[in-house]
Amino acid sequence: MKALDWIILVGTTLAIVGWGTWKTRGPRTAASYLRGDYEQRWTTIGLSVMATQASAITFLSTPGQGYEDGMRFVQFYFGLPLAMIIISAVFVPIFYKLRVTTAYEFLEARFDVKTRLLGAFLFLVQRGLGTGVTIYAPAIILSTALGWPLEPTIWGTGGVVILYTITGGARTVSATQKQQMVLMLGGMLVAAVVIVFRLPDHVSLPRAIDVAGALGHVNVMNWSFDWNDRYTVWSGLLGGLFLQLAYFGTDQSQVQRYLGGESVTASRLGLLFNGVLKIPMQFLILGVGVLVFVFYQFTAPPLVFNERVRAAVGETAQAGEFAALEARWAEVQATKRAAADRFVTALDAGDDAAAADARAVIQAEAKQAADVRKQAQTLVTQALPGETAKDADYVFITFVKRWLPTGVFGLLVAVIMAAAMSAIASGLSSLGATTTHDFYRRVFGREASDAHLLRASKAFTVLWGLIALCFASFAAMIDNLIQAVNILGSLFYGTVLGLFLVAFFVKWVRGHAAFFAALVSQAAVIAVYVLTEVGYLWFNVIGCLLVVVLGVALQAVLPRSRAA
Amino acid sequence: MSEERPELDARPPLLGRWRNIYLAVVGVLVLQLVIYTVLTKVYS
Questions:
Q1: Residue contact A265–B39, C-beta within 8 A
Q2: How far is A273 from A132, CA to CA, in rounded Å?
Q3: CA A343 to CA A354: how far, in whole Å?
Q4: Residue A221: its chain B contacts at CB < 8 A?
């Protein structure tokens, strides 16, 4: 990185954190620290909700996914607007009416204290580990791609976030996220425009889309009912609805963002703003990845994007074989580029026959390229046992580093850091709030003074920060870390969502029935995970439906006098 | 009640009723589904 890149990165980060902290300065109560003072405007809520969901991995992995797989991942978000409507109409007014500080407090109001503690405990387990990954995942990619030392990157990022989170609590986190989200959206728009200008002179934006389409990368929609296909319109609408309901409606890192709104109206508008803007935002980020893909049709991409892995393979017995694959890769890329040039020229000339011929050649060469890349990945696995051969996460950062001008490079690293910090901050703030409000205050400190609770809240936030940082530091020792945490999250999300859905929609089910239904469902989901091959995304649906069905069944057989 | 607790104010700022705003959000979703379907068909 050049001096200008560093100035932009450090300048934007300090400006955002400094402004957010200054803007929300002033005396604090425990409630204002944990939830805010019913003063956030809908724009702050909307941007803060979006920033919480958009972690650094969103800006590293999603363009890589667009590069590898085209636009189809956008379908994953189709259930989100519907989830926002349900949460706005049902969850928000009840949360406000009861003046809850955490989502789990509602479970006690509706059921009993044990159900509240169960919901809070499940949240702490999965969000605690998830926040560790939120710190580790971008740090490992940035340290590899940019040569930053890993441990200082992890502890430096985490330290700054802990500091500003304990300074102002939920209000500061939301105020900071508002600016961070503007930076993220602006940065990705700038990236899209710069990439278009980086394309060869004869390739306009419409022609770039033609090339992407010829190679199957404008594959936004899949209306088929293929259950084996992870991304279809139906899995997005149905599976996505469950997942987003669980995430936005029951995960305190999100609930905390909209509980401090100036009114029910502000919270609803913020959530609906997210419902309208989220899909276009994901479309933009995936589109940037597709533009990078088109760029690399006219400029040879590296065979392996992770430069550290590429260098390491060169030191092994497989180095010769890898060099041969790279030579073959260069040949295929040259043929493909010539065909892509012919394709664009034929389209400009309106020569349909020539365009069809060139398209066939590009498609054939793309298949060859995919084969060579697959062979290279197999070779990497043989040469470096334990090393992940998939490098989609490195596509965008490698492209940015190699091809984008000074200044824009710094801006995009600032975008990635802003995304990392916003997700970490909301994670830590919500973990501190839940530990303080649902456990410490409820179980041990009901008579504690406000000042005591405020100190405890800050202490718990720091504690969770340290736990997350330690987890991030040792994360490299765990294979398939991100998948492991995703599985862990899916194991618990369904059960928690089931509890909330019973609470809201099945009024006659009461505490004991809901609690034991949740326990049995949780055990059943874990059994499904251990004993079957069911994909982990389905755990959300299974857990949720089991809680509802078992809750109703148990309530029907439990004696009225024993029902809580 | 709402005077004592202004945060409970739930008046929609436009379109008269929340139901209409929710329908507008669904409308935007449907519009996107149509646009993306056309895009996929044109370039497939």
A1: no
A2: 29
A3: 7
A4: 33, 36-37, 39-40
Residues 6+ apart with CB under 8 A from B10: A93, A263, A264, A265, A268, B18
CB A272 within 8 A of CB B21: yes
Question: Helix count (H) and strand count (E) of chain A?
Answer: 23, 0
Average pLDDT (A260-284) is: 95
Residue A413, Cβ neighbours under 10 Å: how many? 26
Which residue of B15, B19, B29 is the best one to mutate when testing the A interface, meaning the one whose CB has the most A CBs within 10 A?
Answer: B29
Residues from chain B contacting residue A218 (CB–CB below 8 Å):
39-40, 43-44
How many angstroms separate the CA atoms of A443 and A2, rounded? 53
User: Do residue B9 and residue A279 have CB atoms under 8 angstroms apart?
Assistant: no
Residues 6 or more apart in contact with residue A453 via CB below 8 angstroms: A30, A436, A440, A441, A445
- What is the distance between the alpha carbons of residues A70 and A293, in angstroms, rounded to a whole number? 9
Determine the residue of chain A that is closest to B24 in CA distance.
Answer: A276
Q: Which residue among B6, B13, B18 places its CB closest to the CB of A89?
A: B18
Place of tokens 């533009």: A291
Q: In angstroms, rounded to a whole number, what is the distance separating the alpha carbons of residues A186 and A157? A: 22
Contact (CB, 8 A) for A551 and A537: no
Say what percent of chain B tops pLDDT 90.
Answer: 68
**Residue A155 to residue A163: CA distance in whole angstroms:** 12
Q: Is the pLDDT of residue A563 over 80?
A: no
Asked if the C-beta of A72 comes within 8 angstroms of chain B's C-beta atoms, the answer is no
**CA triplet A525, A531, A536: central angle to 5 degrees?**
50
Beta carbons of A140 and A293 less than 8 angstroms apart: no
Out of A103-117, A162-176, A522-536, give the one with best mean pLDDT.
A103-117
The structure's pTM equals 0.91
A93 touches chain B (CB under 8 A): yes
**A4, pLDDT greater than 90:** yes
- Range A447-464 average pLDDT: 92
Q: A89 and chain B: CB distance < 8 Å anywhere? A: yes
As beta bridge partners, residue A261 has A40
What is the Cα–Cα distance from A60 to A396, expressed in whole angstroms?
6
DSSP A447-513: T--HHHHHHHHHHHHHHHHHHHHHHHHHGGGSTTHHHHHHHHHHHHHHHHHHHHHHHHH-TT--HHH
Instruction: Tell me which residues of chain B have a C-beta less than 8 Å from any C-beta of chain A.
Output: 6-13, 18, 21-22, 25-26, 28-29, 32-33, 36-37, 39-40, 42-44
Other Cβ atoms less than 10 A from the Cβ of A385: the count is 7
Which of B11, B33, B44 faces A265 most closely, judged by CB atoms?
B11
Looking from the CA of A60 toward its CB, the CA atoms found within 13 Å total 27
Cβ contacts from A onto B, under 8 A = 79
Which chain A residues touch B36 with a CB distance below 8 Å?
74, 220-221
* A419 pLDDT tier (thresholds 50, 70, 90): very high
Q: Both tokens of residue A384?
A: 């470096």
